[in-house]
Amino acid sequence: MADVIWLTRHGSRQDFVDADWHKTAERPHDPPLSAEGLVQAEQLAWRLEPEGITAVFSSPFLRCLQTAAPVANRLRLPIRVEPGFSEWLNPDWFPAPPQILPREAMVEHFPVVARDYSPQVHPTYPEDGETVLRRTAEAATGIAQAYPGTVLYVGHGATVYGSLYGLLGQSFAELERTLGAIHYCCLFRVERRNGAWVLGLCGDTSHLGEGKGGERFH
Questions:
Q1: Torsions phi, psi for 22 (to 5 deg)
Q2: Where in the sequence is the domain holding 191, given as residue range(s)?
Q3: Is residue 214 part of a domain?
């Protein structure tokens, strides 16, 4: 059972800085990090290095894997790819289930990805807001029960909201008031106290440069 959980959103994404990127992309709904996002991922890794993290979990979307990889490489830990932390499969954003890297290509691009991890949850397209909260909450609480020590969840705005929804037991409205904007590569930290999860660090961006950005939800 985990004692501490760190949560972060991916870094700045390429399609938000280059509006034409999707026109020639092989997977237009799975953008990589922008140049700034790659820097943010390195800053995140530097920040988390001394925190005693024992396991790293990531959404399978490319921008999240690119965010998790510097942390995992610095800590010499595998990345466990958790589909339960995937982007919100909102039909207003995606006209069909988004294409992401196939498993073998994922391992080829990111050798640090664990081959033997059994995911907690597999999302189903399409999802409404309540469904993504429940799906992410299930993944977050399942991992917290199964993995001891200090773990890191790397995902999307929806991952942060859904994970804390499940761990803290607050309503979405309460979380919105507490969390505010979920910036790129910002950090949240929860720890177990007397059998309950308590939010400590909330949306910290002190490890990032001035261009933290990322008020958009996904």
A1: -65, -20
A2: 2-19+26-199
A3: no
Question: What residues have CB less than 8 Å from 37, skipping those under 6 apart?
Answer: 10, 11, 12, 13, 14, 63, 66, 67, 184, 185
Tens digits of residue pLDDT in 146-194 = 999 999 999 999 999 999 999 999 988 999 899 988 999 999 999 999 9
Report the C-alpha gap between 217 and 212 in whole angstroms: 14
CA distance 57 to 43: 18
CA dihedral of residues 155, 57, 77, 55 (deg, nearest 10): 120
- Please indicate, yes or no, if residue 149 is contained in any of the structural domains: yes
Task: Report if residue 207 sits inside a domain.
Answer: no
With respect to residue 177, please indicate whether it lies within any of the assigned structural domains.
yes
Q: How far apart are CA 86 and CA 55, in angstroms?
A: 18
